[in-house]
Amino acid sequence: MDEPLVDCHCHLSANEFLQVNRRLTLRSAGVKALIAVTEGASEFESVIQLSKAYQGLIFPCFGIHPLQGCQQDLHSVRIQDLEPVLPLFQVFRGDLVAVGEIGLDFTPWYAPTVQELCSCWKAINIHLLWPFSHLGIRHALLHNFAGRPSVAMEGLQAGYYFSFPPAVSRNDQRDKLIKQIPLERICLETDSPALGPEKQVRNEPKNITISLEHIAKVKGISTEIVAEITTKNALCLFSRLNL
């Protein structure tokens, strides 16, 4: 694959990648840029360090997922979860390419906080299934999108982008969505280490080609065209990327 590929959503700070030779794994698939998202403050330092170690390859995001805590204490994000970490978004503002991963739980104080964060960056990386236009978010990637076609249409009207991980190759449940959404609004992602082509097997950024090939197959076009357009889309949405 000659066209550079962009993995727009992956969790490189996950424990599953601690012993992986990332550069070898990534470059072997033609991946030239990865957007490393987080779900909580415990991952912030890790993605910053990764972006320094792999400068020009890994680009960091900070995100606060609406669900926080461990399995024994899983709870909706609370104000005490947010207050200590929000200043870090400003401290590292020059390093971040976007806000993410986030979701929107629409609590009275969480949604306004997300809106304030999003106003500082051009793009956000969201896991979202429900209508959202009333929030006024202008630039977004709806990752691993599995919502209703009507929600997809709302996203298209708002100018948002969509991405699909390699797991979509396991079945045809989302093929209708992939057909419905114009290629000019689709980006590539792996969501690694989750949502790979095989269940319960660690997903890796090199599997981005599986997403690429599946989208090309569903749309009946060449992988070269999908690679070219999705990379252009990623560069348009995430303006701080450089290949």
TrEMBL record:
Gene Ontology molecular function: any one: hydrolase activity, acting on ester bonds
Keyword Hydrolase in record: yes
Chain sites annotated for binding a divalent metal cation 1: H9, H11, E101, D191
Binding site residues for a divalent metal cation 2: H127, H143
Family matches, as SUPFAM superfamilies: Metallo-dependent hydrolases
Species in which this protein is naturally found: Astyanax mexicanus
Presence of the UniProt keyword Cytoplasm in the record: no
Domain of life: Eukaryota
Gene3D superfamilies referenced in this protein's UniProt entry, alphabetically: Metal-dependent hydrolases
Protein task: Exhibits 3'-exonuclease activities and apurinic/apyrimidinic (AP) endonuclease (in vitro). Show preferential AP endonuclease activity on double-stranded DNA substrates and 3'- exonuclease activity on single-stranded DNA.
Membership in a protein family: Belongs to the metallo-dependent hydrolases superfamily. TatD-type hydrolase family.
Name of this protein: TatD DNase domain containing 3
UniProt KW keywords: Hydrolase, Metal-binding
InterPro entries in alphabetical order: Metal_Hydrolase, TatD-like
